[in-house]
Amino acid sequence: MSEQHVFHYQQEFQLESGALLPGFQLAYTTYGTLNPERSNVVWVCHALTGSSDFTDWWCDLFGEGKLYNPQEWFIVCANTLGGCYGSTGPLSVNPKTLQPYFQAFPQLTNRDIVRAFDLLRQDLGLERVHTLIGGSLGGQQALEWVLQKPAVFERLVHVASNARHSPWGIAFNESQRMAIRQDPSWGTDTPDAGQQGLKTARAIAMLSYRHYNTYQQAQQEPGHSITDNFRAASYQVYQGEKLAQRFNAYTYWLLSKAMDSHNVGRGRGSVEKALAQVKAKCLFVGVDTDLLFPVEEQYYLHAQVSGSTFHLLRSNYGHDGFLVEVDQLADAIRQFYLKEKVTEEELNYEKQER
Q1: 9, 78, 221, 342: which is deepest, by most CB within 10 A?
Q2: Rounded Cα gap, residues 324 and 210, in angstroms
Q3: Catalytic center at which residues (predicted)?
Q4: Does 202 belong to an annotated binding site?
Q5: What is the DSSP letter of 316?
Q6: For 302-323, what is each residue's pLDDT tens digit?
């Protein structure tokens, strides 16, 4: 069974903006056992509204008999800084004021978030990570992390994500934040401020997470007589209600801003120069119907990172295909590992021949 833990960092933590957090905590999940060589670590970075419990939202990838069997691997995932599943975020109490942060919580970037992750990694004594895997926002963070700590990560599995968030993606996120701002409660310092706006924001997001084909197949009316109360309309309402029951508008706002700020080229000369610095062996995965992180973004990464591998998932689920088409994803990762093994065997054979 997976285990839940909390990491406490009790020193000031300076953010990229210059703001300071007076310490923080990260909730994290571990699954499996670290081998004597400490060489079997898999670290997972979750998406925007995910938690550290990867056995919940990526259950077909992790578990007994699955690709990442806990009998063979030691798997770690931390709830992001700024999150609402046990890590320090806007609803946490500020130790300086003894009141929740609410909108006073400082803005984060993915660089801040992975620096917090890395403090946890160091606390766990994990000097090497066999595979770092993340999708969407988690893929952004994973790519940033391999650039910050090139000696730590041996492999990167980067799924349905990018090197720099696009104007298209930023526009989607801002449209969602506009919905939150329209909620009259957003200006109040209460835990449920902006919740009605959050419901609308989630409905907007679904249009970027899914695809025309998804709605056509699952939400089409069976007959021709209906003029109101359509399935697709009720589905949007349902998705908004469901998220509002488990998430808060503050964290949604904060992490969507972190996604917008993603740009590995910042301070590194350019995106191309940054990607040329990647040392990890990389598998870039795209979804053929992804509207939010279109496959052009993963093709670009593959072209820029020397020696990398690319795989395309076929799906009618759009961006969410990276969570749905797990069998395809698992096969792609197996082939990635196998290709690496074959290459190593060929190199060893050539050395012997010499």
Answers
A1: 78
A2: 11
A3: 136 (nucleophile), 290, 319
A4: yes
A5: S
A6: 999 999 999 999 999 999 999 9
Block residue for tokens 């060893």: 348
Give the active site residue among 51, 92, 136, 161.
Answer: 136
Distance CA 202, CA 207 (A): 9
User: CB–CB of 303/171 below 8 Å?
Assistant: no
Amino acid 140: pLDDT: 98
Domains and CATH numbers, the chain: 3-166+264-353 (3.40.50.1820), 170-256 (1.10.1740.110)
Place of tokens 């893929």: 139
Distances (CA, A) of 307 to 6, 33, 163, 222, 272: 37, 31, 17, 49, 15
Q: Are the beta carbons of 85 and 79 closer than 8 angstroms? A: yes
- What is the C-alpha separation between 289 and 267, in angstroms, rounded? 32
192 is catalytic: no
Which residue bears the tokens 């076929």?
Answer: 314
Contact 77, 83 (CB under 8 A): no
Is residue 92 annotated as a catalytic residue, yes or no? Answer: no
Tell me the two tokens of residue 192.
């449920």
List 290, 308, 311, 315, catalytic entry:
290
- Ligand-binding site membership of 183 (annotated): no
For the whole prediction, is pTM greater than 0.70?
yes
How many helices and strands in the chain, by DSSP H and E? 12, 12
